[in-house]
Write a structure and sequence with these properties.
The protein is α/β, with parallel strands linked by helices and 223 residues long. 48% of the residues lie in helices and 15% in strands.
Length: 223
């Protein structure tokens, strides 16, 4: 098993960008996230051009390799392949997982593929479809997904009991409410603003990661 497989197997903290412009400091924040212990950074932007995303993606891929972490791309399998990303995250209305795998295979590339889910029914469907991991949320209201209804902690509890593949709780999670999410059974979280809107992304990432690691240690001790 190579280091990338080890990182995916044990990942806890997943940071997602929400770029509204080609910010000069975006790459610096991504590097700080990795330094703080973020295992996966997902490049996400609904407004940047493909040229800008490719430019930032190529640089992020180099940072991920430097810190021996993973780099994923949101929605776009083509951009994930062009930038040499390790994975892609798909929404409910995006390309199917089998289609994404077929496209990656044609390019001689393997991608980890995740899928957003908002209910246990969608979670089971994503597992059946062949997802490597799923997103569970949005747990709390978040401006990143203004039109999405939060699913609350009940879905987190359901996922903890019923989902066997890796899953990440996502949506409005930060240092103030992370303990509610871990108490509901989450051992992996994905965050957006908590890291990338912070003045010190590295410090916040380290604090979030420490909470997750301590929670996992306690859970293993009890088991």
């Amino acid at each position: 098993m190579g280091w990338r497989e080890e990182v995916f197997k044990d990942f806890r903290l997943y940071a997602v960008t929400d770029l509204r412009a080609e910010e000069p400091g975006a790459l610096r924040k991504i590097e700080q996230a990795y330094r703080g212990g973020t295992d996966i950074v997902q490049l996400r932007s609904k407004v940047l051009s493909d040229v800008a995303l490719i430019r930032l993606g190529l640089k992020t891929a180099k940072l991920a390799a430097k810190y021996k972490k993973l780099f994923f791309v949101n929605d776009r399998v083509d951009l994930a392949l062009v930038t040499g990303a390790d994975g892609v995250h798909l929404g409910q209305d995006d390309m199917t997982i089998p289609a994404a795998r077929k496209l990656a295979a044609r390019m001689g590339h393997k991608l980890w593929i995740g899928k957003s889910t908002h209910s246990l029914r969608q979670a089971f469907a994503a597992v059946k479809e062949g997802a490597d991991y799923i997103g569970v949320g949005p747990v709390f209201p978040t401006p990143t997904k203004p039109n999405a209804n939060s699913v609350g902690l009940q879905y987190v509890r359901q996922a903890a009991l019923r989902i066997q593949i890796p899953w990440v709780a996502i949506g409005g999670i930060d240092l103030k409410n992370i303990f509610q999410v871990t108490a509901a059974g989450a051992t992996r979280i994905a965050v957006v603003r908590a890291i990338f809107a912070a003045k010190e992304p590295e410090i916040v990432a380290r604090k979030l990661k420490n909470v997750l690691l301590r929670h996992c240690e306690r859970s293993e001790a009890i088991a």
